[in-house]
Amino acid sequence: MPNSAEKKSKTVFLGSTSADLTDIRAELRQLIPSLGFQIICFEDPQFIKKAGLHAHDICLDNVENCDIHLLIIDQRFGEEYAGANPTFEGKSITRAEVEVALEKNKQICTFVRRRIWDEKGTWRWNKNKGIAIEPYYAKDPKVFEFIEFITQQSTDNWVDQFEDSIELKRQVKERLLMLVR
Is residue 88 a part of any domain in this protein? Predict the structure, then answer.
């Protein structure tokens, strides 16, 4: 079992869409520090905000300061990236954060709401047949493309599914503590 100093040296970036996951983000903002990790999230007054940058680029800069990128995916694709890097045009800010984490070799832990994960299978099945569907749970089919992007990576492509915040917090706790063993 790692000692508190070893865990303290690990910093977790909390990545997700925000409007639909406000309560879950709040619960994780309490859980992660209680496990002995430092947390980086835009809600924190300590979130580093460099002058002269778009808010999205500030988020990308903060990803570089983490050891672990904790990604929560639910029904929304997220706000489209509007910063200065043309590489991320047409992508969500959440996906841009993940791409920065991958580029910087950060550990990525992904959790997807189970009903979205299950609906992705229907989306893929129909997509392969050339049939566009209107998803029931997902607010935008681009969320499925984002999940596919994660699962097609050569590393950190494991995706855990969760039903509710209680299950998510249990899984996050297990996963984070496993990373520092």
Answer: yes
181 residues of the chain, pLDDT tens digit each: 455 555 457 999 999 999 899 999 999 999 999 999 999 999 998 899 999 999 999 999 999 999 999 999 999 999 999 999 999 999 999 999 999 999 999 999 999 999 999 999 999 999 999 999 999 999 999 999 999 999 999 999 999 999 999 999 999 999 999 998 8
148: left (phi over 0), alpha (psi -120 to 50) or beta: alpha
Q: 């580093």: which residue's tokens?
A: 48
Contact present, 109 and 69 (Cβ < 8 Å): yes
Q: Give the count of beta carbons closer than 10 Å to the beta carbon of residue 166.
A: 10
- CATH classification of the domain holding 80: 3.40.50.450
Determine the Cα–Cα distance for residues 11 and 147; give it in Å rounded to an integer. 24
Angle between helices 165-179 and 22-34 (to 10 degrees): 40
Amino acid in the structure at residue 169: K
Q: Which residues form the domain of 10?
A: 4-113+142-179
d(CA 110, CA 82): 24
Backbone angles phi, psi at 135, to 5 degrees: -65, 150
Matching residue, tokens 């990525």: 108
In a domain, 128, yes or no: no
